[in-house]
Design brief:
The protein has 427 residues and is mainly α. The protein contains 16 helices and eight strands. The strands form four sheets. Strands 1-2 form a two-stranded antiparallel ribbon. It has a two-stranded antiparallel sheet with strand order 3-4. A two-stranded antiparallel sheet has the order 5-6. The protein starts with a helix and ends in a 20-residue tail after the last strand.
Length: 427
């Protein structure tokens, strides 16, 4: 450990200085020798480090999204070289190199935290052995050795003997119970974070090496924390438990608001987005417009959830635009009438007639028959003579044909021109 500590000695002094500054603040509130003052100082150190790592986390998200956009190409490579694993791996690496993606990008935040982790471990190990380190002098060292978190000293480990624990002013049972509970919570939070990523934020329609990597990390990391956690001081366990909780909350936010296309999280997000947009009639947030813009740009390459989202907007009389905005569609838009009122341009829905009983149908038929009989009695029949004499009606002049002959007007229902003679009917 001395070799590792020497490698990270350049960051030990800044880490110890940050802890001391936070200790001054919390010591004025809870007391300088309390576990609250030193424990909250470590928690604040974690929060500060994770805030500084947010740009790196954003880069990780973009790299992960780039990996997800390559999944169709990766699936084609798998199908093309399914019987040649070596050629399949070579083509995958070639694709990564051409697109500038890295499948190990999900490990960047953990790798970036490792120098701070080893520096903090070296500081707490110096407190356990009673040696000053960084800006922690003799008085701060004595104060840190007196600090207990739920009965366990800040520098105690699960593997420490009873004599060492008693020298720190605590019992071995308290130290074992507190460290065991913190190790279990640390491993459980890590497992839940990876499982949430695998079950909700991964496109399950495509099997890629990236998914296999994430599935492996889901089981490997909790085991690693459980194995190495028994050699971590209580202060380091506080550090890792805090950073795991931060990662879990950060990932929950990303999954809810920026899910992976084709995942269960995207289906839930687009369902919420459909309700929100149809209620307000537009996309109100910039993040919503960004998602809608990406969906519209895909065209025919949309997945099942994205097509369902577009159809839901169309049914509500809305249309998604290429810039991410949502407007009223032309088929449902309101039109201005002549009197100044507005009316919907959509045709009214056809209502299904209600089913009548047998007695109602019979009574309706009888009424219709009587009405028809009354109407026919009032109308003149075709056999009745007209009041006007036939001589009073002028006859239409016959048109002369070019050949000198005449031809009468074609009666209704007959074809113009010379008619074919009808064949005599056989009796």
């Amino acid at each position: 450990m001395d070799t590792i500590a020497s490698l990270f000695s350049f960051i030990t002094t800044p880490v110890s200085w940050v802890i001391v500054q936070f200790h001054k603040v919390y010591g004025a509130i809870f007391g300088p020798d309390t576990g609250w003052a030193w424990g909250l100082s470590i928690v604040s150190l974690v929060i500060l480090i994770r805030i500084c790592l947010i740009p790196l986390f954003v880069k990780q998200i973009k790299s992960t999204r780039a990996m997800q956009t390559l999944q169709p190409e990766m699936k084609k490579i798998q199908e093309r070289y399914k019987n040649d694993k070596q050629r399949q791996s070579e083509e995958m690496m070639k694709l990564y190199k051409e697109t500038g993606t890295n499948p190990l990008s999900s490990c960047l935040p953990i790798l970036a935290q490792s120098p701070f982790f080893f520096a903090l471990y070296h500081v707490l190990n110096g407190i356990a052995t009673g040696s000053t380190i960084g800006v922690i002098n003799e008085s701060l060292l004595a104060s840190a050795r007196k600090a207990h978190i739920v009965g366990a000293p800040l520098a105690a480990k699960f593997t420490d003997g009873s004599s060492k624990v008693e020298a720190l002013g605590a019992s071995l049972t308290d130290v074992r119970v507190v460290t065991a509970v913190m190790i279990v919570l640390m491993s459980a939070s890590q497992f839940y974070t990876q499982r949430q990523l695998m079950t909700k934020n991964v496109d399950t329609t495509v099997k890629t090496p990236f998914m296999q990597q994430q599935k492996m990390l889901m089981y490997v990391f909790p085991v690693m924390f459980a194995v190495f956690g028994i050699n971590f001081p209580v202060g380091v366990l506080v550090y890792w438990l805090t950073t795991n909780v931060w990662t879990m909350g950060q990932q929950m936010y990303v999954i809810r608001n920026n899910p992976t296309p084709g995942s269960k999280a995207q289906a839930a997000y687009l369902e919420r987005l459909t309700k929100h947009v149809t209620h307000h009639g537009k996309a109100r947030k910039r993040s919503e417009r960004t998602i809608i813009k990406a969906i519209v740009a895909k065209g025919r390459d949309r997945n099942e959830f994205e097509r369902k989202f577009i159809n839901g907007l169309n049914k509500a009389g809305l249309a998604a635009q290429a810039d991410g905005s949502v407007i009223q569609s032309e088929s449902q838009a309101a039109v201005q009438t002549e009197d100044g009122s507005t009316a919907s341009a959509a045709a009214p829905k056809r209502q299904q007639p209600k089913r009548q009983s047998k007695s109602q149908r019979q009574s309706g038929a009888a009424a219709a028959g009587s009405k028809a009989a009354g109407d026919t009695s009032s109308e003149p029949t075709s056999l009745s003579k007209s009041d006007e004499p036939e001589d009073a009606k002028p006859a239409a002049p016959a048109k002369k044909q070019p050949g000198g002959g005449t031809r009468s007007k074609a009666q209704s229902g007959q074809r113009k021109g010379p008619q074919r003679p009808k064949s005599p009917s056989k009796k």
